[in-house]
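Blinded run. Sample ID left blank on purpose so nobody reads anything into the name before looking at the predicted structure. Input follows.
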Amino acid sequence: MTSMNANTPAPSSVDALAPIFKASGDPLRLEILRVLRRDTFGVLELSQLFDMRQSGMSHHLKVMHKAGLLEPQREGNAIFYRRPLRLDSDKLADQAIRQIFETIDRAPLPEPTEEKIEAIREQRAEQSRVFFARHAEQFREQQELIAAFDLYAKPTAELIRKRMARQQWQNVLEIGPGEGGFLPVLASLFGQVVAVDNSRDMLAKATDTCRSNELDNVELVEGVTDTLMARGDTFDLIVANMVLHHVPSPADIFLDAAALMNPEGCFIVSDLCSHDQDWAKENCGDLWLGFEPEELTAWAADAGLSAGEQLFIGLRNGFQVQVREFWKQ
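Blinded prediction complete.
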């Protein structure tokens, strides 16, 4: 009689591998998984990327979702798709999925695919720019429909002050300063402050804030993080307050932050947890309805950053804010 080794998987767990390998055994589906390495795309966007009908793309996504290779993410009335956030290292099926991802990620995406992805990101960015151009005068009023500035600014400032008690930080970058409400805090703590924003209208507001508070150590830059990388800038601390849900590719912000940070630097993020209040898209210009904490952690790990302290703040209007820190080793 043959005895089973203690390390031999049960037949049922091996059987679970068949749908995974069947669903991934298609070149197009592997390409879809590759473009979802960091980004989250809707069905229409994926159809645009791969030049195919929406019905055909929906079929492929349904098969991969059923096999556990993808998971849907509802953004208001639209469904987006991403790779699963939680893979159990003890489950054979999840180990197989992780191995598939690691294998296909070794090869770079074709240049034409990268160009199409960039075009979609630019469409999203333009949507955000148009919103802020139209509503610059009502920015604070719109934002406070979700969360009053002090509710996330104060905990973020307290975390920075706590870290500065033992860090020799000299300069700081704020990504997306908006009206510049957090700049006086940063200017009081750092000798050099840089703030970058792609909205000229919001930078005009931030300029007024700097003038009224006589902040002479703040440089405002119109552009994106790529603009600063092209200049060769580096920073000890990077801050993004309620910004990620406005940017086309939040995962890329982590990659850029890591590239812009000095050794032992820190990236501090405050942003919304995942929610289902779709009105925020129209009224506040949000591209994303918040984020699961695991999403931020995964994006940070992919950028070579390690997660540190985290704080979750519940708000009376049903939103929750997360304040997170990520360190460069």
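Unblinding after everyone has recorded impressions. The two ends are 54 Å apart (CA to CA).
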